[in-house]
Write a structure and sequence with these properties.
Immunoglobulin-like; single chain; elongated; 163 residues; mainly beta
Length: 163
Amino acid sequence: QIQVVCSDRPIITLVGDDVILPCRLDPATSADSMTVNWTRPGAASSPVVNRAEINSSSCTVVLQCESAGWYPEPELLWLDGEGKLLSAGPPETVRGPDDLYTVSSRVTVEKRHSNTFTCRVQQNNINQSRETRIDVPDDFFPTSSHPDLSPIPWNCKIKAWRL
């Protein structure tokens, strides 16, 4: 059986670019009448916002985003509805046995004029970016049961909400 043997080192290129693949056939055979299909396993996934929590003490919403299948290592950014960068903790990046990266991050958000938030994962070296936008319902943010009484704490309305 003939096998295509290639380098185990990553090959970085842009979609549509020409590239020379350092490969050989084993056992040595003429490839004049053959076609080699080059595929990229684990193509980067669009970010998935897979968790929403309510912090009842601060009446904030915690969102988590994850995206897998990246090479080289990507960066993850959170943006508000106006495209402004949100402050989030450092992302967690894990390199798998296939040398592809999975990146995840959590951000705590408060109610804004627009409750739209975007998780963007990008790899600038190869000009690749994926993003997912989520709209958080107003019901997930604080409302005061007695707005005239300042000592009354803010309460969070908790409703079933599915991402």
